[in-house]
Specification:
Chain lengths: ~110, ~120
């Protein structure tokens, strides 16, 4: 079964700083990849997704992620964060042909104004 | 409906009591997931339903946990003889699997916060 690793569970940074969150998965086949975000008091919502094609994916609110197949990674980036980006971010993987959607433990990101 | 709906939003129960958590998926979505979210533990997969296929129950932590999905729509997660370690947020998600798993994402409800005292 696939598993997902997220590093640096707690991240604190100042507004305008750049953000990069790592995501690595363990599955050798074709995968669908997702980043979800959970703002305080809100439900999980999709930030961006990768199914095929261009490995650099752009999502909402200026976020992007790059799929590097050789590194089994799907890191999330944002060049300049805002206070409103304070949230918990989850990486998820769905192996093709497998119904289970596996999540990492999440990154709690706090942006200081 | 417009989104995934879960009820109740909060549930406080005494240790040893049974609880039922409900999920109304997005209309037409054939795939439904239950997850448990605990602080610092991410989302723990519990069970998955897809159409009329047998559910994938491999994530259920013990035989006190069960779930059913009636008529391919509403799902109920039941926890029997609740324990304090069952305290968590239980999340439901649905997915439009019929469009093909290569093109769809899961949509989540607000969750049910369960507190066992």
């Amino acid at each position: 079964a696939q598993s997902v690793s997220q590093h640096n569970h707690h991240v604190i940074l100042s507004e305008a700083a750049s953000l990069e969150l790592g995501c690595n998965y363990s599955y050798g086949g074709t995968v669908n990849l997702f980043w979800y975000v959970q703002y305080p008091g809100q439900h999980l919502q999709l930030l961006l997704k990768y199914f095929s094609g261009d490995p650099l994916v752009k999502g909402i609110k200026g976020f992007e992620a790059e799929f590097i197949k050789s590194k089994f990674s799907f890191n999330l980036r944002k060049p300049s964060v805002q206070w409103s980006d304070t949230a918990e971010y989850f990486c998820a993987v769905n192996a093709r042909g497998n119904n289970r959607l596996a999540f990492g433990k999440g990154n709690q990101v706090v942006v200081i104004p | 409906g417009a989104g995934v709906s879960q009820s109740p939003s909060n549930k406080v129960t005494e240790k040893g009591k049974d609880v039922e958590l409900r999920c109304d998926p997005i209309s037409g979505h054939t795939a439904l997931y239950w997850y448990r979210q605990s602080l610092g533990q991410g989302l723990e997969f519990l069970i998955y339903f897809q159409g009329n296929s047998a559910p994938d129950k491999s994530g259920l932590p013990s035989d006190r946990f069960s779930a059913e999905r009636t008529g391919g729509s509403v799902s109920t997660l039941t926890i029997q003889r609740t324990q304090q370690e069952d305290s968590a947020v239980y999340l439901c998600a649905s997915r439009d699997w019929d469009r093909g798993p290569s093109h769809t994402e899961a949509f989540f409800g607000q969750g049910t916060r369960l507190t066992v005292v």
